[in-house]
Hints:
This protein is of the alpha/beta class. 11% of the residues lie in helices and 17% in strands.
Amino acid sequence: MQVKSMILVGTLEKFAFLILFIPKTFQLVGKVMIAIGWLFFASIFWIDCKKTAEEILGEAKASPSSVLLLDLGMQKLSSIPEGICSFPNLTKLDLRLNSLTSLPESVGECKNLEQLNLFGNDLTTFPASFSKLKNLKVLLAGNNDLTVLPSELLFLPRIKTLYLDQNKITLTETDVEILASLSELEELDLNLNTGIKTLPSNYGKLKSLARLKKLNIKKTSLKGEDAEKLQAILPNTKIDY
Length: 241
């Protein structure tokens, strides 16, 4: 199949360089002009879906300042390739469904990162340098092996979306302190953390999450009365229980 005409893709606001994973059955002819949100002049550069992470990074480094989005998902990575934060304008990084057990300290060098997808790895902690990602707004860290909330989140006040579903979190008093510090938080997903059995004694501090629109506590071990307690302090939040 050939793609020759203008197409609409999602609701992204802007980008200058997009890395896509496109099956062999598709073919892009040269640079294809697309409309993304309000952007009507951008270029897609075709990268074979079978290329390795190193090859993808190599091609991206040809124009480092133009890279805003980097997708290294489903690459069977056990560690993050060197140079992943060498793109000064990188705002979206996708590392989903790999085999990462840790993140390098160098991840803190991705200072303009706004969205990070770590879903489906084997992470138990985050490095101290994670606290340097001051512009981070979306963190998807579901389906990992976290037992507590990373303390580095205390230094990331701009986070609006936080997915911690399918981990081993028990929701301690310290976890509540960390969550209560995220004053910009709009969506929190704790689904499938079966270790969450009761609300900590300081759960009332979550009242500070005045902007929280959605809280998912499905398939935890919390009871209906716990959901009612949370709803009482978060009257404007939709709680999925």
